[in-house]
Design brief:
Length: 141
């Protein structure tokens, strides 16, 4: 992993978020830049970029920013689990399990939508094909 610090514009381009969105996530305490330049510009590490990428993955799944914040807090604490009580670890793992169940549920809903759209696409293709065939047949008669 590189210790290189990136400016917000580099990060935005790299992960496909707007500057405004990244600043908003900073204001919401979802991601905090690891450093600031002498001029006060936000500077991000690779770990910060990974965190923003995770937020970007969660957002389309209809998680609220508060839910995302809760998940990130649990992940942060578990990353330092060496000095945690086993009861606390169990509680955090339970939270992660709830989030995983929510993600799995949303995944199933999306699979159903994809299946429905694929079925609709096949039906429309068949209708288009049969309409073209009928049109061709009526021209030759």
């Amino acid at each position: 992993m590189s210790d290189e610090l990136m400016q917000i514009g580099q990060v935005a381009t790299r992960i496909g978020l707007s500057l405004r969105t990244i600043r908003h996530y900073d204001e919401m305490d979802l991601v905090t830049p690891s450093a600031r330049s002498a001029g006060g510009f936000r500077l991000y590490t690779e770990a910060d970029v990974d965190r923003l990428a995770l937020i970007k993955q969660l957002k389309p799944l209809d998680f609220s920013l508060e839910q995302i914040k809760e998940l990130l807090a649990a992940v942060d604490v578990l990353a330092q689990h060496d000095d945690l009580e086993s009861v606390r670890v169990d509680d955090l793992l339970g939270r992660l399990s709830m989030f995983r169940a929510a993600v799995d549920s949303r995944l199933e809903a999306l699979r159903y939508q994809v299946d429905s759209l694929e079925s609709l696409s096949r039906d429309l293709k068949n209708l288009e094909g049969s309409t073209r065939s009928n049109k061709s047949a009526s021209r030759t008669t």
